[in-house]
Amino acid sequence: MTRDAVDLVVEQWARVRPDLDASPMRVLGRLSRMTRIAERELKKLFSEFGLERGEFDVLATLRRADSADGMTAGMLARSSMVTSGAVTNRLDRLVAKGYITRDLDPANRRTVIVALTPAGRELIDRAVAAHVDNERRILAALDQHQQDDLAAALRILLLSHGDEASDVGPAGEA
């Protein structure tokens, strides 16, 4: 079997600290390395659409919400798990690009409603299709059964740390 960088790290720890069980590094080290690889590949894809990751997330959240009325800026901020300032910056960029509108709610002038423009909807529909294809390519070394097993194991791990769907809201990562 071919060794990866994590195998080397765990072997080195076993050699210099035989009293230390470094086996958790086999999982978390690989998750960390794979996350960096996936993030690099996702960033490359999003840039092909003229988007940054956060901009894609906002557009995807609005598209998944499937509401002609849009969402409040507060809902977007809560669901994206970033500061309201970060959401405001993303919204500013997307308004400037013509992909979203940001209007005051006529029923409550303190509330801002964010909605996709036709150009934004067309862009996110193309981008999300390419995104899913890109994710499929990233996972291609695993057959469907292995992907299902990995997804199930990661779900168990996430739930054990309190990462439940009700905590994420409509913009949860996928």
TrEMBL record:
SMART domains: HTH_MARR. InterPro entries: HTH_MarR-typ (IPR000835), Tscrpt_reg_MarR-type_CS (IPR023187), WH-like_DNA-bd_sf (IPR036388), WH_DNA-bd_sf (IPR036390). Gene3D superfamilies: Winged helix-like DNA-binding domain superfamily/Winged helix DNA-binding domain. It comes from the Bacteria. Keywords: DNA-binding, Transcription, Transcription regulation. The keyword Transmembrane helix does not apply. SUPFAM superfamilies: Winged helix' DNA-binding domain. Residues 21-159 form the HTH marR-type domain. PANTHER family: TRANSCRIPTIONAL REGULATOR, MARR (PTHR42756), TRANSCRIPTIONAL REPRESSOR OF EMRAB OPERON (PTHR42756:SF1). This is MarR family transcriptional regulator. The lineage of its organism: Bacteria, Bacillati, Actinomycetota, Actinomycetes, Kitasatosporales.
